[in-house]
Amino acid sequence: MSPCDTSYDNPVRVGLVGAGPWARAMHARTLAAGPETRLTAVWARRQEAAAEVAADHGAAAAATFDELLDRCEAVAFAVPPAVQAELAVRAAKAGKALLLEKPLGPDLASARRVTEAIEDAGVVSQLVLTKRYHPATREFLARAARLEVTGARSCYLHGAFLGGDFATAWRLEHGALLDLGPHLLDLLDAAVGPIVSVRGTGDPRRWIELTCEHENGAVSQASLSGTVRLPKARTRIELLGPEEELVYDTGSLDHEECWPVLRAEFAAAVRAGASGPIDARRGLRLQELLDQAVAGG
After folding, report:
1. Can you give the pTM of this predicted structure?
2. Domains (range + CATH), the chain
3. Neighbours of 277 (CB within 10 A)
């Protein structure tokens, strides 16, 4: 076994920042499940919540962020963008690999600071762009690469901001563009071709419509909302052109298939000392597109 291999006898020791619904639902249980990773510590500003998550997964509850850094070689973030942007810089400077949520920060300037800190420190980074780790998404992108696309229609819609665990303060403040936009812009950029400009219209707290112009001359549109009542979340992309239509729809996908892939690829990147394509630099590109949409193109 080479030094770059991920050994089950040498799992990546990961500390988790955050103890909210998403930290509990995905990060903690995925990282604790292994075998490529081991959850060693949890830290959150609400100490009682961190202690509860840590106890559920056999990890330590860190009293401070610095203690968390001492207990791990990689840090996973499940906190609002502004908090991630602040602490990710500190973790990178401490030499820790980073598993980051999207968006990198609440604005373009903070996303740049995170990316620069990661590059200056030379640490591994990876983004939790959930759908990118599903085999069906990878098949769709492979098929899209062989198509000539003239235009695309897409949407990411749900009602989670109407109430419940995920109607959090930062989502209610910034709306669907900052939360859902990275997913859809990432997929359109990858499937249709590099996006060169984005124009947004509407209210991201209710419904926002994006028009994207791509490097190859194609045009795509994206509808985003977190405040529409639907039986379940709807993510759909239709690629249209002189060839047969290609449709990607997550309605029948089991997102549980994403987590083992995400965990294994992160651990492999950490052990190899090299980030994959879904890294902080990718997150910065998406943040640049979000910034364009906010500015009106």
Report:
1. 0.94
2. 12-130+257-278 (3.40.50.720), 135-252 (3.30.360.10)
3. 10
